[in-house]
Design a protein that fits this description.
The chain has 195 residues and is an alpha/beta fold. It folds into 2 domains: 111 residues, 3-Layer(aba) Sandwich (Rossmann fold), CATH 3.40.50.720; 42 residues, no CATH class. 38% of the residues lie in helices and 14% in strands. A 7-stranded mixed β-sheet has the order 1-4-3-2-5-6-7, with helices on both faces.
Length: 195
């Protein structure tokens, strides 16, 4: 019986991942690329893993000098190659919830106790992962996007800072801008924001 060969990998961009203390980012689509830019903007080194060599953001990563390894992020050999045993965090941000969970499990094998950040959009997968597997921090992508957009809309439409706009709207201060929910039944027309 032939021993199992690790999958072939290719490194695009910088050839060497950071020595330690970096973020291993699995999934280098739009979310992964933007996250890598945000982390690098904060001075945090990143090494990315993407399984599709033709993914559009691989070229962007190369131009941005981010090391991108072409391989499977749920493969232990790939994770070892990108330094998951020495990294600060493994972030699995692919668009597939189950792949992200598999990455978390593999990363835990390579570096027991490594902090994990998992992008999960399916509420059922997120709940099961948190309650059964205790893998790490689970980010509900859909909730994060909705909350961020709601904060931005609230801040823009009501001239409030994003910190002031969590929870219930302060209707006592902005009665002329925010409709009274009880009065809304009587008035079927919708109010214009900022009027």
């Amino acid at each position: 019986m032939t021993p199992k060969q690790p999958p072939l990998t290719t490194i695009v961009g910088r050839r060497a991942p950071p020595a330690r203390g970096h973020v291993v980012l699995v999934g280098f689509g739009q979310v992964g690329f933007r996250l890598s830019q945000a982390l690098r903007g904060r001075g945090i080194p990143v090494t990315a893993v993407e399984r599709d060599p033709d993914a559009p953001y691989v070229r962007h990563g190369q131009r941005a000098r981010i090391p991108v390894v072409i391989g499977r992020g749920d493969d232990r050999a790939t994770l070892e190659l990108v330094g998951a045993g020495r990294c600060a965090v493994v972030a699995a941000v692919t668009s597939d919830d189950l792949v992200n969970v598999a990455v978390g499990l593999a990363a835990g094998d390579v570096h027991p106790g490594v902090p994990l950040a998992l992008r999960l959009g399916d509420g059922g997968v997120a709940t099961e992962t948190e309650s059964l597997l205790h893998l790490g921090t689970v980010f509900d992508a859909h909730h994060l996007v909705a909350t961020t957009l709601a904060d931005a809309i609230c801040a823009k439409a009501f001239d409030l800072g994003t910190d002031s706009c969590h929870g219930e709207m302060p209707t006592h201060k902005y009665r002329d801008r925010v409709p009274d929910p009880e009065a809304a039944e009587e008035q079927p027309t919708s109010p214009r924001l900022g009027a």
